[in-house]
Write a structure and sequence with these properties.
2 helices
Length: 200
């Protein structure tokens, strides 16, 4: 089953296209990230009286071989008080033309198992005469407590973290091509799924 997240704000599901530049009318070149937000379909409407949650479930990226219980690759639940939407309706960027900022949620790139130098910006030993140690050395204390304390920065898995970027400025919205330009970088690889959340 697709993963289902709950966030108490309305938004839309998108996909990261990549970074580029956008020229404003003043001639200023702004670094932006282009996000493709195809129209999302309302899969389910939740009623607060029956399910104690008021909102809608949107679906994006239709499957090539849809089934009765699974038609979209990505599902996300958005809380929307007293929603007037109905199942099967479409949500597009035209509903967000007045938005000046978005909260964007994405998943950072996975970098596998990395050492302390790359993962935590540790420095290496001085590469001078007589130095035998290169990178990360012992982690435990010399005497007490005789073990490694929890939470110590060590080599390990890096990346694949859920990143939330708040108040990201909207540079341009193109409803015709379903593309929105966000100022600055957005976490995730090209083609990864991102969630654009409308800010109050």
């Amino acid at each position: 089953m697709p993963r289902l997240f709950v966030l108490f704000v309305f938004g839309i599901i998108g996909k990261k296209l990549g970074m580029g530049q956008f020229a404003r009318e003043s001639g200023e070149m702004v670094p932006v990230t282009f996000l493709l937000c195809q129209p999302n379909e309302v899969v389910q409407v939740k009623d607060s009286e029956k399910e104690n949650v008021s909102g809608v479930v949107l679906g994006s990226t239709p499957l090539k071989k849809p089934r009765k219980t699974k038609k979209f690759k990505v599902l996300k639940q958005f809380a929307l008080p007293e929603s007037a939407m109905k199942k099967g309706e479409k949500v597009s960027l035209e509903s967000f033309q007045d938005c000046k900022t978005f909260t964007i949620v994405g998943t950072s790139k996975g970098k596998g198992f990395q050492g302390g130098v790359k993962r935590h910006n540790f420095r290496t030993a001085r590469h001078t005469h007589g130095t035998k140690e290169g990178r990360h050395g012992s982690t435990g204390a010399a005497t007490a407590p005789g073990r490694t304390k929890p939470g110590l920065k060590m080599p390990g898995h890096m990346g694949c973290d859920r990143i939330t970027l708040k108040k990201r400025q909207v540079v341009n919205i193109d409803p015709k091509n379903h593309v929105v330009a966000i100022k600055g970088p957005v976490a995730g690889a090209i083609g990864s799924t991102v969630f654009l959340l409308k800010e109050d």
